[in-house]
């Protein structure tokens, strides 16, 4: 191929917004010519480059949009430290079984027992599989809902949330909300009932959720919807951070102060 034609191909691919093709076509063309590869085989390889790149970019975009605080996979979760969580069930959920059936998941346990880690790992697995996922804290979601209401765009925000295949609501700490904030959060949960999946983590057992949702009636109505067709895992055991701290201290050499 002449230099002029090579420049033209590169310019055309840029105009067509095919960055992967623009980066790889020349090298693949050289390899095809050296191997006397048929034109159609070269074309297949060339288009596969763009398809693969776009799929990877789409996954990366979904993960960014999900808003995970950190990236944690399930292979780094210590199931032996939390025997109440069945590994086979988590693997099944990571393949999308719960989302496909519009079921929910509740992770209940004390601070440091791995609730956020497991929730993030499941969300990442589903995002990589093509599902639309969003990770929010309960307090953060209530703040966003209240702001949207003040700015007269609450319906738009609820529609955006409704499009998510999985909404992860992570409760960090023992927070309560105003009556208005609790009602807004309740409505989001109610909107998803038997239509979309929720994953909720909580430090408090169900019997104490009334502290958060401002009364028994709202709490009962919320739990009725949330726990219907829901997997509930009680995550007991020592705090992961505490265990790691003890390991670190045990590994120090007292003579060297290390």
Rg is: 25 Å
Order of helices and strands: HHHHHEHEHHEHEHEH
* End-to-end distance: 64 Å
Q: Give the CA-based shape.
A: elongated
The largest pleated sheet is described as: 5 strands, parallel
Number of helices: 11
Describe the structure.
With 258 residues, this protein is of the alpha/beta class. It is built from 11 helices and 5 strands. It has helices spanning 3-15, 19-34, 39-66, 87-94, 97-100, 115-128, 138-150, 154-162, 179-191, 216-226, 240-250, and strands at 104-109, 133-137, 166-170, 197-202, 230-235. A 5-stranded parallel sheet has the order 2-3-4-1-5. It is elongated and about 75 Å long. The relative contact order is 0.12. The mean pLDDT is 84.
What's the SSE blueprint?
Layout: H1 3-15, H2 19-34, H3 39-66, H4 87-94, H5 97-100, E1 104-109, H6 115-128, E2 133-137, H7 138-150, H8 154-162, E3 166-170, H9 179-191, E4 197-202, H10 216-226, E5 230-235, H11 240-250
Parallel strand pairs: 1-4, 1-5, 2-3, 3-4
What's the gist of this structure?
By secondary structure, this protein is an alpha/beta fold. It has helices at residues 3-15, 19-34, 39-66, 87-94, 97-100, 115-128, 138-150, 154-162, 179-191, 216-226, 240-250; strands at residues 104-109, 133-137, 166-170, 197-202, 230-235. β3 (166-170), α9 and β4 form a beta-alpha-beta unit.
Pick out its properties:
single chain; 54% helix; 258 residues
